[in-house]
Specification:
4 copies of one chain form a homotetramer. By secondary structure, chain A is mostly helical. Chain A contains 12 helices and 3 strands. The first copy, chain A, has helices at 30-33, 39-48, 54-68, 74-85, 90-98, 107-119, 129-146, 163-174, 180-196, 204-215, 223-243, 247-259, and strands at residues 16-19, 22-25, 28-29.
Chain lengths: 261, 261, 261, 261
């Protein structure tokens, strides 16, 4: 093959290998894993290239479960409206729903994870309270000077605390993980609430951003947790839509309201 | 609200309910489930509106795990090529990959499930071998007269048997489920191989179509199993693409080959 | 290259050719076409591999223009709801909107074109009124025996006629095309209205299905006309959404109505 | 309706209005426009809420035509690979292809338009050569200090100039528009080529970014030009794929190369 400047590297994926009698995924025999490895642990294998230990399994399953179902979100409405027009393509309706998992909603996982992974020194070990406080002040100042809200704080319904975030933090500690990123998000919540004058609890995506850091997931793929989880939830919404449709009503009401003006 | 002909039904989803201090999913407290319910069992809850028992959990997790990762499929290539153009949108790359899960590949789950759910009488109970054989002959005749191949049979690599299908069938039986749909697919494989003169083993999607029937999942949402599972696998491919890219090479080789002609 | 059973054909696309100083599309110099060929005529080139003559240009532009904008459809709502969640990805919002252009709405173009291209004999020439009537009776009987409605007939708002369909038919005739497919759709409208007892005018997608046949576009890509046209309209909706947002209201009302029950 | 903090604004779209006998788009009678307004001019109406004059029409059609077809791009490969898996959903294959029109490729239109609209003072009128030169030096310095390449410059194939960019610039001038943004991009090309030591011509997306500014299209929707244009091109690729398939070969070669390693 001649030298060239673009695309010269080999086409190579090391995720799966198949022979007539076997399939391996990240070096493990898939057939052996069927019946013994759960979906959540297999998802961990896809992300970390090894199976989780018991504590990692509990924590990872918890954060992904927390992302599956958030009710009648714009994403769920989108999947249902798409199925109204293209009932032949369940994959299209799920894909449409996933496309709304961007910067506004699920992207805050990424934002919170990025804060934790950028500001906490990689070799810091467990920071003490004064270290956390100093770091949080600096982050709050940085975001204030950019005029940006801190991602992962605040919730329209869940106040004074987001019960899911609380539970995920408790699990992290029970399972014996270093809770530095969690304490940082909690301190950011305290400072931000004080500065703004209203309650800004760590919400579920903020919590998951912190826990992604605990688990070692790079912030720039943390959004993938939301995408994989919500794909499950959207199939659930499409199943309900077949039995108890609401998309046609949402459409009719929007169209009628618009045309009456 | 005035009477109207379209969209008059209420907008109502019963999947999730949130109050300031709680979230319920299908009537169960989400916070209680965090840390105790695995991702696979929660996916079962989304589809069946209740948590699985132990046997259902083992079997359901096994079939979804079997669908997560199929290597460098058109779907995986699509996700990677999309990330090359739009690295800012991981959700877009996953969505693009899911859009290829249509009639050709994952749709065969649906096809096999449809055969099982259409031909096996709903109140039949466990069919004996003669019943299965008669049914399979009828199905094979019906498909032959339509000139259609039977979905869920045959595999380009896995011969003489698809080891994943074999394992999933073994799990179904070990867990004590009625194996009528499995025996029907096995008999269809035997008849088709004989009629065609080459081996047409039950493949993994054919197996999962049969097991969807065992679990009571309607055939017209069975494709959703593939969609939710593959969303996980596609995130894994996008993670590898960031570290060991191949999309640019696939593109360059295709473009060069085309332009040399 | 060694023989193999799958994917052995060369990778070859004949649409575009580029050299350092030129680009050709379907054999025509792109640079020469810039400033002289309109977008609609270039779209015709993509579909028919040659530029349209004057009459073809008028008719083709008319049918695609008629598909661009249909107001606050499920597809437009979907694009807007997606932009609410992922404002960073305009391409994702358009893609989500397009995914709803399936069997229910735009797919009726395909259905009407399929009727015309299946039932009208390829070498029939212009059918006389008795030929049209006999064909329409047969089609109506075939659909009635399948319990299916005839695609392309009926409209919730536009009665007794769809003014867009009327105009498209008038243009076809003014431009001197054989109007056999149009007369077939009109006769199907007459028969169906009579049999059902209410008005079922040829609607705009039914008209475009007939005119696709007039222009020689195969029915199984006729859906593509709607997809390319609506991509334009969706960009318009996303532009309006930035200036005069409505997606958040649609979401809030749906969520509130659901949670009040 | 009670006051509320989110979604309280009315649901209102002013793009289209329909009555039983008419449809208006941006205040113009759609039926009157069928047969007289071309697809490109109608696209202009969607973006600018009025029809273009003759010069605007020539220029707008030219830039959109230039974006329709770029050969066997990652986006075209994606659409074709998606159709391989889901032949039932043409809309899904087009949507998948559009999802790759992100920051890497079509996003450079946005980048170039943003430079023009950010750096050229809104009330500057036509800048003289010294003004252009000073502005270009400042931009080049700003991008250099951020370590970023200037979007819209350079092309792997088209050297020393991109013939499409040249032609679009000529049309802009022939049609009598203020060419300040064009001269800015040309000066940026000159400075960048000099500083880098190799040729960095204004490419077609850089040209279109400049011309978007000439036409008054806000940079943050300039990406929409590429999305609407490419939707047309992707339908063309899907039509060719049905007649002369290449996706299966692309897939097979990638999979084989990967599995041989």
């Amino acid at each position: 093959m001649p030298a060239h400047t673009r695309g010269g590297s080999p086409v190579r994926s090391d995720i799966a290998r198949a022979t007539p009698s076997t399939v391996h995924v990240h070096g493990l025999d898939l057939v052996d894993m069927l019946g013994t490895v759960s979906l959540g642990d297999f998802a961990y294998l896809e992300l970390f290239r090894r199976l989780p230990d018991k504590s990692e399994s509990v924590l990872f399953n918890a954060i992904v479960v927390a992302l599956v179902e958030h009710g009648l979100t714009p994403s769920a409405l989108t999947a249902r409206l798409t199925a109204l027009g293209a009932p032949e393509s369940l994959q299209g309706a799920v894909a449409a729903g996933l496309l709304g998992l961007g910067n506004t909603f699920v992207g805050t996982i990424e934002g919170a994870a990025r804060i934790c992974q950028t500001y906490i020194p990689a070799d810091a070990g467990r920071l003490d309270d004064r270290g956390i406080q100093a770091l949080a002040e600096r982050i709050a100042d940085d975001f204030a000077s950019d005029g940006q809200p801190i991602p992962g704080l605040g919730h329209p319904v869940h106040k004074p605390v987001d019960p899911r975030a609380q539970k995920l933090f408790a699990i992290t500690r029970e399972q014996g993980f270093d809770d530095t990123p969690i304490r940082l998000m909690e301190e950011l919540s305290r400072i931000s609430s004080e500065r703004r004058g209203w309650l800004l609890p760590v919400n579920v995506t903020g919590a998951i951003g912190a826990i992604s850091t605990v688990l070692g997931l790079p912030w720039d793929v943390a959004r993938g947790l939301g995408v994989m989880a919500r794909a499950i939830g959207l199939v659930g919404h499409l199943l309900e839509e077949r039995q108890q449709p609401l998309a046609a009503s949402v459409w009719t009401r929007a169209e009628r309201e618009s045309s009456e003006q």
